[in-house]
Amino acid sequence: MTGAGAEPADGAVPRRRSRRDEILQIAVGLFAARGYHGVSMDDIGSAAGVTGPALYHHFAGKEAMLVAALIPVSEGLLAGGRQRVTEHRHDPQATLESLIDFHVEFALANPAVIALHLHELDRLPEEPRRQIRRLQRLYVEEWVTTLTALHPGLSAGEARVLAHAAFGLMNSTPFLGGEVERQRRAVLLRAATLAALLHHPDSGDPAP
């Protein structure tokens, strides 16, 4: 997976970060901490140790940084989700477990990107915002397909409700402090999400 601060997908060899990647990661961290309007290009250049002309060589402005941060992440989530659905296509529970593992690892590795997405997506121009929304919808549908296969009788609309609720749980990482170490946070997030999605919403019983 590429993008500002985003970790590579499982099994991928991480590429060496370019100066552009480093600047983008710094910008994402500042946006997440202070808000889009609370950060100037000068702030980003100062934090990155880059002069104004050099900074504009990499990015036309803050808006371009948002696009560069969010679109590759959305593309990576969709690609990773599709890969896991394909790998476990004959076993819906194994698919669900793999999707949860994948998303929890992403959420723990990229809390600043998640915060940026939650609070700043509407700053984007219409076209890139529409592209990101489309990628998100396609990613959600991978979860919907898995949940409806796991829970016969569950409608697609109901499965979307469950999927979005699960994302809310897993994407809580920007709000989690360091009180609990990372590996334990991963265990807790995985267990809570799996428990929520394995149980049939009508019967209260685990999926067969």
CATH architecture classification of the domain at 62-198? Orthogonal Bundle
Query: Count of helices?
Result: 9
Taking all residues together, what is the mean pLDDT? 87
CATH class descriptor name of the domain at 62-198:
Mainly Alpha
Overall radius of gyration: 18 Å
- Stretches where pLDDT is under 50 for at least 5 consecutive residues are 1-5, 7-14
- Quaternary state of this entry equals single chain
Structural class: mainly alpha
Instruction: Give the overall shape.
Output: elongated
Q: Indicate the proportion of strand residues.
A: under 5%
Provide an overview of this structure:
The protein is mostly helical and 208 residues long. The chain has a domain at 62-198: Tetracycline Repressor, domain 2 (Orthogonal Bundle). It is 68% helix and 0% strand. Helix 5 (92-109) packs antiparallel against helix 9. The longest helix is centred in the middle third of the chain and has 26 residues, at 62-87.
What's the layout of helices and strands?
Elements: H1 19-34, H2 41-48, H3 52-58, H4 62-87, H5 92-109, H6 111-120, H7 126-150, H8 156-170, H9 182-198
Helix pairs in contact: 1-2, 1-4, 1-6, 4-5, 4-6, 4-7, 5-7, 5-9, 7-8, 8-9
